[in-house]
């Protein structure tokens, strides 16, 4: 799939390279802004807010590393590719440390090599914007990758392969569900295990709440999946509003959600579940031409028993949720 078009700031003090590379990138459909000094580059960056910056290290006024540092400290979503006529390992490592995403060595014998780096960087820009919660993980990845690149910087093919693997890992290690804004199931199992270990260590209470939207398939079949997505998104918003900062919520799968409540006894967790159930049922949805449709929830609440496995804990909360459905739905079962 071809990358989205981008606004690119090209910074170099060589007029020939500016013209050649600028024209080449425009032919690919990108909007290109040119700067031949560090001061002009910073002014254009602040006023134009480009998606991607191609930055020469050697500029007539400011150090390219200083320009790089300014841009990366302001917004880590701006793509940064350093270009240099020296290509030393120290320059490459220092550039990556200050926020660069790639390091290219002039002269460019094949502009397709530059295009490959630009395309990969633009893909990464959009990936970062789609999920800002990647940032914590990205910082760890940058530090890890910088250490790896100390050994691999001379072998360009190995570096490019590592970058491709890293981009795949960013997608695979996504922590959140895009539709609801909650954490996803993959992150749940990692987090609940940590909370169980903490509850065991400090002998503190830990509760779990499983939530399922009643008759959601019928709602989707009746009003369509876009309207169903609106229900899921609203429930995600409401859960985030009603739980504490110490709690964490996850889209467990489909129309099923789960909340982890550390330092919370079962009775208090049941009160939280009831607030979510009643508040959500009071909300009116207006799919298509329907008049104020109300959607109910079935909730199962339980607490951790010392010595049991995470699987046992989740299964019991799940069974309580199904018991709520058998009781007629729109209710909370706490055992």
UniProtKB/TrEMBL annotation:
Residues 204-335 form the GGDEF domain. Keywords: Phosphoprotein. It is an enzyme of class 2 (transferase). GO terms for biological process: cell adhesion involved in single-species biofilm formation; negative regulation of bacterial-type flagellum-dependent cell motility; phosphorelay signal transduction system. PROSITE patterns: GGDEF, RESPONSE_REGULATORY. Transmembrane segments: none annotated. The modification 4-aspartylphosphate is found at residue 56. GO terms for cellular component: plasma membrane. PANTHER family: DIGUANYLATE CYCLASE DGCM-RELATED (PTHR45138:SF9), REGULATORY COMPONENTS OF SENSORY TRANSDUCTION SYSTEM (PTHR45138). This is diguanylate cyclase.
């Amino acid at each position: 799939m071809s990358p989205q078009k981008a606004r690119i700031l090209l910074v170099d003090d060589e007029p020939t390279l500016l013209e050649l590379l600028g024209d080449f990138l425009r032919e690919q459909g990108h909007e290109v802004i040119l700067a031949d000094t560090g001061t002009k580059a910073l002014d254009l960056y602040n006023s134009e807010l480009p998606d991607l910056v191609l930055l020469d290290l050697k500029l007539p006024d400011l150090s390219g590393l200083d320009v790089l540092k300014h841009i990366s400290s302001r917004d880590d979503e701006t793509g940064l590719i350093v270009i240099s006529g020296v290509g030393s390992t120290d320059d490459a490592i220092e550039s990556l440390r200050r926020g660069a995403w790639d390091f290219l060595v002039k002269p460019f014998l094949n502009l397709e090599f530059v295009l490959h780096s630009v395309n990969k960087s633009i893909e990464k820009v959009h990936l970062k914007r789609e999920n800002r919660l990647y940032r914590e993980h990205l910082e760890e990845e940058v530090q890890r990758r910088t250490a790896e690149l100390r050994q691999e910087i001379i072998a360009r093919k190995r570096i490019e392969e590592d970058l491709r693997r890293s981009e795949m890992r960013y997608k695979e290690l996504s922590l959140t569900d895009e539709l609801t804004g909650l954490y996803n199931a993959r992150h749940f199992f990692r987090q609940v295990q940590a909370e169980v270990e903490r509850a065991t260590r400090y002998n503190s209470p830990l509760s779990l709440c499983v939530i399922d939207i009643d008759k959601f398939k019928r709602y989707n079949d009746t009003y369509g999946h876009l309207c169903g997505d609106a229900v899921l998104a609203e429930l995600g918003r409401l859960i985030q509003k009603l739980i504490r900062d110490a709690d964490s919520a996850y889209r467990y799968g489909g129309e099923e959600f789960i909340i982890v409540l550390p330092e919370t006894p079962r009775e208090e967790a049941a009160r939280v579940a009831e607030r979510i159930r009643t508040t959500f049922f009071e909300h009116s949805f207006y799919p298509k031409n329907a008049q104020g449709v109300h959607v109910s929830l079935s909730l199962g609440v339980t607490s951790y028993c010392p010595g049991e496995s995470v699987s046992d804990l989740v299964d019991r909360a799940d069974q309580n949720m199904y018991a709520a459905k058998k009781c007629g739905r729109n209710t909370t079962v706490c055992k």
